[in-house]
């Protein structure tokens, strides 16, 4: 059975590693993106990279490498206190 590495609308909102075909990238490099939405025809996918840049790509040019776990935001109450600041004179 052939492995399907195309993106699916079921991945909307998910963090994924992808290969962007046709983009200037190092050979074999994967990029973390968040899948934002698909066009009504499913030919285009809107993604956001880790720098917050949002862009549309042809769905056939975005190949799924791996599904990532959601990032967990730590509870501020559970973080250790910061050390006191030193005042420089």
Walk me through this protein's architecture:
The protein is mainly β and 89 residues long. It has a domain at 9-69: SH3 type barrels, CATH 2.30.30.520. The protein is 0% helix and 35% strand. The protein has no helices and 5 strands. It has strands at residues 15-20, 31-38, 44-49, 54-58, 62-67. The chain has a 5-stranded antiparallel β-sheet, with no helix packed on it. The model has no long low-confidence stretch (mean pLDDT 82).
What's the topology here?
Elements: E1 15-20, E2 31-38, E3 44-49, E4 54-58, E5 62-67
Antiparallel strand pairs: 1-2, 1-5, 2-3, 3-4
Features of the shown structure:
mainly beta; SH3 type barrels
Shape: elongated
- Give the strand line-up of the largest sheet: 4-3-2-1-5
- Give the end-to-end Cα distance, rounded to a whole number of Å: 70 Å
What is the radius of gyration?
18 Å
Ranges where pLDDT stays below 50 over 5 or more residues in a row are none
Beta-strand content bin: 25-35%
Do you know the CATH topology of the domain at 9-69?
SH3 type barrels
Biggest pleated sheet: 5 strands, antiparallel
State the share of residues found in helices, binned by percent. under 10%
